[in-house]
Amino acid sequence: MVRPHLPLNALRAFEASARHLSFTRAAVELCVTQAAVSHQVKVLEQRLKVTLFKRLPRGLMITAEGEALLPVVRDSFDRMAEMLERFEGGQVRQVLTVGAVGTFAVGWLLPRLPAFAARHPFIDLRLSTNNNRVDAAAEGLDLAIRFGDGAWHGTEAERLFEAPLSPLCIPAIADTLREPADLLRHTLLRSYRADEWPAWFAAAGVAAPGPLVKGVVFDSSVAMLEAATQGAGIALAPPRMFTRQLDAGVVRRPFAIGVSMGAYWLTRLKSRRPTPAMRGFREWLLETAGAETDAAGGIGTS
Hints:
Number of helices: 10
CATH architecture of the largest domain: 3-Layer(aba) Sandwich
């Protein structure tokens, strides 16, 4: 198919004039004369056989035809600019879109991204967070980091590590706890997975009465721990994701008992062919997670 010659100068003049509603201000931006901008817009109007602007004594008024054309032109120029920005030092930057559970993104991934960027300076990583509910196809994700058992339909999943759950709370509450059963005297913050606290008490050997918890349900361990740091109660969260808060003494882990409810996985739709950027991120992520797990003495270490 032979594509017609695109009048790029005329389209640029049109876009700038529509943004400023002035040939004069568009000319200043484009470093040309007002007459040149007016001429380019006239050329475009003649080619399209429509009127794009109504010329007023003071400025311009865009027509319905101009309004229809403008978003297409803007989007096209934006996409060209974005692509040109991806070229650096003779090499194209590869875009990689990754979705991640918010807790994992904030607690583990973000502090390690500088190391990834240093290894892969030409990968333009775009990170979106979620609460473990994700539609990789609809969201256009290349890869997704999810929590669970690794069984998602149509998905290839590679295990990263477990992150067992333990009670986390502010020091003032931790000082009142002597044995696991003491937790029952406090507000126990809960996630949408109702089996977590019962599983932890079972691991601790406590015959806890039900229902154990009432009140606000959190869809993110990040939000739950923030509530805990404000003294709202005791969170059941993965200490491995909150090492900064633990090291700073903002929260404490009163009991070493942990219960595993799943693992973090790197996932890819089987229908999504791996790109060089996807392979680079996968290799770095598995290597980093594996090295840290080995150094900690095992998958279950938190």
